Structures are given as structure tokens and as C-alpha cells.
Amino acid sequence: MFPLLLVLVVSIPLSSGAQIPNQGQAKDLPVATNGEPFPWDRMRLPITISPLHYDLTIHPNLTTLDFTGVVRISLDVQEDTSTVVLHAKQMHISNVVLLAPEGIRPLRVLEYPRFHQLALLSDSVLTKGRKYKVQVEFAANLSDSFHGFYKGSYRTSSGEVRAIASTQFEATFARGAFPCFDEPAFKANFTIRIIREPRHIAISNMPKVKTVELPGGLLEDHFDTTVKMSTYLVAYIVSDFLSVSKTTNHGVKISVYAVPEKIDQTAFALDAAVKLLDFYDDYFDIPYPLPKQDLAAIPDFQSGAMENWGLTTYRETGLLFDPDRSSASDKLGITKVIAHELAHQWFGNLVTMEWWNDLWLNEGFAKFMEFISLDITYPELHVDDFFLGKCFEAMEVDSLTSSHPVSTPVENPTQIQEMFDDVSYDKGACILNMLRDFLGPEAFEIGIIRYLKRYSYQNTVNSHLWESLTDICSSDALDEGRMKHTEFCSKHKLQSGSSKWYSDDELDVRAIMDTWTLQEGFPLVTVEVKGREIRLSQERFLRTDNPSLTEGFLWQIPLTYMTSASNTVHRFLLKTKTDVLYLPEDVDWVKFNVNMSGYYMVHYAGEGWNSIIKLLQYNHTAISGNDRASLIQNVFQLVSVGKVRLDTALELSLYLSKETEIMAVTQGFGELVPLYKLMEKRDMTVLENQMK
To answer: Is the separation of the CB atoms in 418 and 23 below 8 Å?
Structure first.
């Protein structure tokens, strides 16, 4: 999902493990709406039963703004039980039956609205390994919010208001559209039918197979069965949209849907989607598994966009481009959003986090892939200039006491929704970029392809990704790999004399990355040069008056640095609180965190900042534009926590009169303008003129 507005909040850690019923809880069972005990007392569903397949028929009425439906769910019974617990929210349930080998039997229904749960009670045991189906009829109003199956509308140029019905199920809103096992690990196949009036069309995740005429002049569209996927990725829209289509080089039909009067604004998005889906098809070395990919511009839409498999949905501003009125930044925004949602078709849809605590595996990767894909497919947009800004934004919220780890225990829908923030998206992307820089782009690409292939149509946790990025040249990994993988390992074997592509001690990716995902915040690395010695220390960078809050944090930091003596980028993994590096010769300056590829700040103690200031004044192009932007950001952030004097930061910023790179200039303005405005408000005319 592409967030429109991200708000940082503190999540309350709670147990997140799925459970088996009847484990003898000491506390009383919850009470159902009819006053009977409800047989399940956890927020998470039991693991005794899993869904295999949903047959879902939905009939929305865009006049009365409600819908009816029937769902038949094929079940995999993993433990003997007489209770099926699943989700349903704010709907009327009726005619619930069990389709068993012995025949059809009615099921008793209990509802527990607090957890959005239904319990379907059988008078006989559902036996492990046997095949069963439950069938549930349901009815509800189309949602007034922008979640679940909701009503929308738009106004034509003649003033006519037209209704549409659309879905937004991430994270926990499929349960408001049909009874289901609404957790990401309960993957299943979906066969969907939608009943509509002839004046509308219906689209869903898969292509339409046929349309059947029903009594009363209604039509029923039958859609092909989906691949195995999570409930939050199911989507369907009933509307009067028009579409334009093209086919990718890999044979996938791409269509962009919009309201009729804006269909002429879809050409840019259509071309971008074709180009980007082809890029991902090649990059991930895994064919996009569906025959089509629709992109729909929804007039009423809360998020920036949503990655529903085969039917991605967008705000109109996130998809439509008017050549006569839209700007260059609109073009950048549209390509980034499309790149993000199409990356999700692999990261998130094909391979899905097991639970929402690892949402960053979806969102951090999609955010990261925006920049990887656009750097190659749209180099003229200079998207790498904007990535650095994302890391600065992430640090802004991650330096507060209210931050949370990238991977945070969450349980209830409110906590889950809170995970869609700058930490999951931007910090997630920045630590992946740091890892890619440390491992090398080729090794990183091989590792993530290995991860996607190994866990296709499955669910994962953090450690699965780290394992896939470790030992990429082992015999097991080579068996899973492709030609490019084999060539990479052969080349590095020749260079190093061994099969290890990494020359230091065996690299433990999990040990490194656990320090970045399981604790909040980020490190400040203090560097002091004494002759040929570089003394290093790390601490948490935190905006607080309470120094005790920075204690107890330790990261494994993939340091990079260069010096005045050489253009070579040197690498060192700082695992301890302090360490010392030795230089082969004396140097005038040293710059750590080359290109700001690492998610950490650097403080140059002693004469360190003075040597940096001299470098920028006399030879600023000796380091990259990103390096210069990071020095500006770091020094002003250090001023804000009292580590550096303001006059040092202002002296460093004087070089900006010679600066031509966009990120360094915008970062400089970003730091100086607030100071200037402060002086302006306080009528400090002399200082104001000095600033000018």
C-alpha cells in the first residue's frame, strides 16, 4: 500500500502467536451476542482449520447502497474440532451450513463483535484430514468509510452524480465484505462472481471468464480462480469506468481504468506500468503469475494506492496525468506509486509477511524497489536524489522517544493500522539500501531472488530474508539459482581463491540486521582521527534530555569511509561500542558513510569538523553530492542535540554558494530557512542580513 499520510505512533507489544483452541484458559470465555459463552478468547484465529478455497458471489446494489452475498469455503482440518472460528464484521449472517462427506447439515452461529469473530458450531466433530466446506449467506450496507466494500461517487461535467462500489481490504477489512479467515497467513484461492446491472462493469483480481444473464435483467460476471493469496489482496469494483490496454513484452495485458471523462489522462500510467512490469519480470527472474494487471483510478480513495493482486487501485492524482496541466513532479509521483504497487506483486503478494509485525518486509521492500526500478527505467527522473530525503525523513521520526522497531509485535486492528508509518516504509527501505551497498548489488539481487523463489505463495518472517542473503554461493544456493548467480559465484571464487564471495569472517546477515529491525532508533558514530589512528564509538542518536534512554543500544554497523589519500571506499563492520582503525598514511580528512548509504549519523570529534569544512571550502567536489548533503544534515542534527556548536554548522554551510547538486542545495535550504524565519520573527535585522 502507498500511504497518503503517515503518522508515527507507539504500538503496544502484545503476544502475536496463533493458537490452538481449548488450551485451558484460566479466565472466563468471552460472551457472544446471544449471551452464550463464545468458544474462543484470542484476537488471532485458531490454527485448527485453514481455508483452501473461497467460492464468493457478491451482489452490490448501487441504488440502495447495500450488498448481499454467499461464500462457500473449502476447509483444511488440521486438528479434530467441532468449531470453525473466522472473521465477519457488521454484517447479517444467515443460512449457515456444513457440506460434509455425509451430507449437508446446519451449523449454529455465535457472534463476538469485539474481535470481529464468528463461531460456527457443528453437532459432530470435523475430523482431521477430511474434506469439508462451510457455506454462509450474508448481507451488509456498503461502507461509509474508505475501507472494506465501500460506496463512492463522482460528478460528471454535466453535474450528474454517479455511484461506484470499490474495495480496500488491507489490513483487516476483508471481514467487512465477506466472512473469511482475515489474517495474511491464511492464504487460499478465490473464485469470484459479481452480480450487476447492465449499465455497470465489474472487475476483479482475475480476468472475466463469462457473463451470465439472470432473471430481472441482471448480469453475473464469473472471474477466473486466483492464485493462492491472502484475503487483504482480494479486490472488486463495480462502476461505469472505461479502460485502455496494452500488452507487455512478457505477454501480460495491462489495462488502466478511469471515469469516462478522464480516460484521456491514462496514457502515461499505461506506458509506465508496461515498462515497470517488464522490468520486475526480468529483475526478479520470476514471471508475473497472472494473465493481466489492471490499474484503476478511484475517485474516492483514502490511501495513496493499494497492491491488490492483478487489480491495483489508486487515487486519481496517483494515476492520471494530463499532458496540458500536470507537472514534472506529478510524473515523478505517478511513476513512483506505480513502481511501488507493482513491486508488491512479488514482495507482499507472492511472498507475504506471516503477520503484520513484519509489515516492513512488504512496505520497506516496495519503497526500496521504487528507487531501484526507476533508476533503471526512468533515469531522467533522477529518483536517487529523492531516496536520500526519505532516509532523512525516517531519521527525523526515528530519533524521537516515540519511535518503534521496524519489526514490532502488534495484535489488534488499531495497532496493525499504526504500522503503516515512516518507520515501516522509509526506514525499511533505507536499511535495505544499506545492506545492498554492504553486500554488493549483484549479491543482494541474487539473495532476494533466492528468497522470492524459495517462499513463493508462502508467508515469511524476518529471518527467512536474512537466511536467503547469507551463503549465496553455497551448493544449496547454487542449486536454487540461475545462470547469473552461477557466473557471479564463479567469478568471486576465482578472485578470492575460495567459494566465499565475502572475504572477511563468514558474514552473519541475520546478526547484523536483527540489530536494525528489532530495536528502535539508529546509531551516531563518533569518529576521532589521531595521527594514523581512527577511534570509533557508537551510541543511540536520540532527542531527549534523559541520557539514560540512549543506554543499552548496540548496532552492527556496516561502516564505509574514504580519505584524502584515496578514492577507494573502505569497509568495516563495527560490532562493538568502541573500536580503532589504522590508516596506512597520514590524511587531511576522512569522510564516513560514503554517499550516505548507511542508516547512521557521523560526528567528527576533535578537529574532524574543521577538516571537513576546509575540504568543502576548497575542494567540495572531492566527495559526492549525497556526501555533501549528508554532512549538512548530520551537522545541523548534531547542533540540535548539543553535540556541535551552531557556528560550526553555519561555517560548514558557507560553501553552499558553490553548490549545484539538488540534494545538497535543498538540504542546505531545509536547515537554514527555519533559522532565517526565526530571526525574522524576532526582528534580528543584523543577523538576518548576515544570513542573506
So the answer is: no
In this predicted model, which residue has the larger pLDDT, 605 or 689? 605
Q: Measured between alpha carbons, how far is residue 560 from residues 372, 438, 587, 590, 594 in Å? A: 21, 8, 16, 11, 6
Largest Cα span, the chain: 91
Between residues 39 and 8, the one the model is more confident about:
39
The C-alpha cell that represents 581 in the structure block: 582503525
Instruction: Report the alpha-carbon angle 424-429-434, nearest 5.
Output: 130
Residue 470 and residue 490: Cα distance in Å, rounded? 17
Is the CB of residue 257 less than 8 Å from the CB of residue 297?
yes
Provide mean pLDDT across the span 590-599: 96
How much is the average pLDDT of 7-17? 34
Query: pTM score, two decimals?
Result: 0.90
Residue 82 to residue 109: CA distance in whole angstroms = 12
Question: CA-to-CA distance for 68 and 71, rounded, in angstroms?
Answer: 10
Active-site residue set: 341
pLDDT at residue number 6: 37
For 269-316, what is each residue's pLDDT tens digit? 999 999 999 999 999 999 999 999 999 999 988 888 999 999 999 999
Looking at the DSSP assignment, which residues form a beta bridge with residue 100? 103
Tell me which amino acid residue 541 is.
F
CA distances in angstroms from 215 to 219, 220, 238, 332, 683, listed in the order given: 9, 10, 19, 48, 77
Query: What pLDDT does residue 482 have?
Result: 60
Q: Residues 18, 47: contact at Cβ < 8 Å?
A: yes
- E strands, 430-532, in order: 458-460, 523-530
In this structure, how many other beta carbons lie within 10 angstroms of the beta carbon of residue 289? 18
> Which residue type is seen at 631?
L
Q: What's the pLDDT score for residue 500? A: 36
Could you tell me which of 228, 220, 11, 33 has the C-alpha nearest to residue 115?
33
Select from 192, 171, 193, 195 the least CA-distant residue to 183.
Answer: 171
Task: Report DSSP state, residue 232.
Answer: G
Q: Which residue has the cell 546477515?
A: 509
Please give the angle made by the CA atoms of 34, 86 and 189, to the nearest 5 degrees. 150
